[in-house]
Amino acid sequence: MQRYRFAPLLTEKDDAESSEGGIDPLGTEPLADALAVRLVPGVRERQRHPRFLTAMAVSLEVCRDFDEETVATDGISAPWIIFEWYLVEGLVRSTGAKERLGVPGSLKAARAIDDGVPLSARRYLKTPTVFGFHGVYRQLARTLGIEDSGRLGETGFELLSVWAAEQGLEGFAGSGAGPGQAVRTQLKDAVRAGLELGSTARGGGWSGWEFFRKHLSPYGAESRESRFIATALLNDPKGFRRDVIQSLVAAKGLRVWEATGSEREFHHALRVTAREELRDLLNAIDGFESFSRLCQDAFQDCLCEMTRQGGKKTPLTSLAALRSVRLASKRVPESFGDVMMRLEPVGETVRFSETFAGLAERGSPTEWVERLIEHHRKTQRRKPPNGKNPWFERFDDGSLIIRPDYRTDEPGTHDDRYVHLYRTPSLWQFARDIHLVKA
User: Fold this and answer.
1) Is the peptide bond before 385 cis (omega within 30 degrees of 0)?
2) For residue 324, what pLDDT is reported?
3) Which of 171, 193, 405, 427 fits 180 for a cystine, CB–CB 3.0-4.6 Å?
């Protein structure tokens, strides 16, 4: 069985200050992401554990009395990020490594604890609004109604109430009395102290650390909480999240996914019984991924060939001689019209044509690989905020030298697997966590 492919949990690549662009060298990601969003709204590649939705509801309740403009003495950290620090540090302090798999920022927290310093903006993720658990799960929380304009939404309040009752923390949500009221106050006081210090403000003996293991550990959702999250995920009036999840946990989809770990194979199985709108979308994904695989394999093999030259110039003719380049130079122009037709029902023909039209021109392998190189250069120049450097230097005679950061010995896959992720690994982990399938 293939190992399921996940997006990396953490990356600091391509920050705004860097002129390097180490991801998406051919600009295929935006269109793939648009198709994935249409397929399963709110779900993102880095998502692993749906219980972070409960953690976000808890965070919103704990932080609801702070003004929107409130920031810590460090001048940048809002109350929710202070709560995030506590949760991540708490899980690191109170759980084993396996229990916190998939917790964004846990490595940073572990290093801070080892160094005997509190977690703070300086010691945490560089861009927590993207890579922290709030950043990773916020769009899904908003899609499901857990968060609404920065406040606890209707679905969020219901989730919080179910969680509190099941955890023996009645009174945590709203104004009711119960044991949860004192716990909420304890957490709110910790956040307030964290705002004053610009860091977590509790020592290793604080009783509150155990709260995060006992009540918010990623794998610890009880039955009613799990059912509530499952119902929220299956309620999808705008996309096909319900269709995909139900197919994934049904006998046929489960068998295909467990046997292959292939999104293409799973989508083929899903397409058989899919309603027309979903079938059109899956056809669009299939066509775009075949196009992307041809281009990506050719580009990756070019990188390997340039790397093999060991710092010497690589002529275009050497790249044109590569099997994957010769294949792409023939099939990409031939298939371009078909991909356009597949994308037409989902409204993505203009984006596809404007982005990749240069690769559709027929010509010799040398002419096509030159267009591929120029497409990469244009893709890098268009990246925000001020463009990124290409992965190689080009000389007046047309030859190329790969830049050191991008040297690789890993060729293209030369198979039919998708280049991009369409959230099936995330949904599979969701289904396991909330007991839609056996773990």
Assistant:
1) yes
2) 98
3) 171
Going by C-alpha positions, the residue among 302, 304, 285 that lies closest to residue 375 is 302
Query: What's the residue count for the chain?
Result: 439
Q: Vertex 160, ends 156 and 164: CA angle to 5°?
A: 175
Alpha-carbon span 425 to 16, nearest angstrom? 29
Please answer whether residues 127 and 81 qualify as being in contact, where contact means their C-beta atoms are separated by less than 8 angstroms.
no
Nearest to 103 by CA among 77, 124, 74, 73: 124
SS3 content of the chain, % helix, strand, coil (to 5): 60, 5, 40
> 335: which 2 tokens?
């298939």
Is residue 223 exposed (0-12), middle (13-18) or buried (19+ Cβ within 10 Å)? exposed
The label of the residue with tokens 């775009």 reads: 288
Both structure tokens of 202: 């509790």
How far apart are alpha carbons 298 and 375 in whole angstroms? 13
CA–CA separation, 236 and 3 (whole Å):
28
Contacts of 312 (CB under 8 A, 6+ apart): 401
Taking the C-alpha atoms of residue 34 and residue 87, their distance in angstroms, rounded to an integer, is: 32
CB count within 10 Å of CB 80 equals: 21
pLDDT above 70: residue 9: no
Beta bridge partners of 314: 400
Q: What's the one-letter identity of residue 163? A: W
Q: Residues 298-313: what's their mean pLDDT?
A: 96
Rg (Cα) of the chain, in Å, rounded? Answer: 24
Q: Taking a C-beta distance cutoff of 8 angstroms, is the pair 247, 253 a contact?
A: yes
- Residues 287-315, mean pLDDT to the nearest whole number: 97
Q: What amino acid is encoded at 271 in this protein?
A: R
pLDDT digits (tens, 9 = 90+) for 171-185: 999 877 899 999 999
In 3D space, the residue among 383, 244, 359 whose CA is nearest the CA of residue 292 turns out to be 359
24 phi-psi bin (left φ>0, alpha ψ -120 to 50, beta other): left
- pLDDT for residue 348: 98
Provide the token pair at 169: 């923390």
